[in-house]
Amino acid sequence: MYSVLLIVAIILIGVVISTMMQKQNKAETQKSNSEKDALRREIGELKQRIQTLERIATDKSRRLADKIDALDEKTDDKRE
Question: CA–CA separation, 20 vs 27, rounded Å?
Fold first, then answer.
């Protein structure tokens, strides 16, 4: 009789431990997913910034303006 109660107690303890572990894993997964979402948003924002910087760096009119400014600086240096 005691052996049956012992077996039932062991099974119940196993079920309780298993349930607790599943809840903990689920909470960790949800936390992990929210962290992943935050990182994805940040990566998206960084990609947009990079695209903007690439447009600025490769903008022909900007390069032309830089060349003109450089010529102006050379001219100013010669005048002094």
Answer: 11
